[in-house]
Write a structure and sequence with these properties.
Number of helices: 2
Distance between the termini: 37 Å
Length: 87
Amino acid sequence: MSSSSPSSNEPSLEVIRETLRSFDVESGPSSAAGRLDLSMDDGTGIATLCINSPARKNAWSGKMMAQFSDVLTVLEGWEEVSDRNFF
């Protein structure tokens, strides 16, 4: 019988994030690994997330997957949000 709760042998979310970040080697400010740019407007309660990885045609890197998890954590705690819908 399978259980929906993670076993004690599974890595934590933070360990997974750090592992994903370690896959990308940055080579200065214009890294080919790309990045996610989050802007939040407290006046409207609207957040915009921009995928910024032109060298890889906006393909996601391990670093970007870890950043996305971080962005979701930030947005979950954002008090000024107008709605929690993603488009």
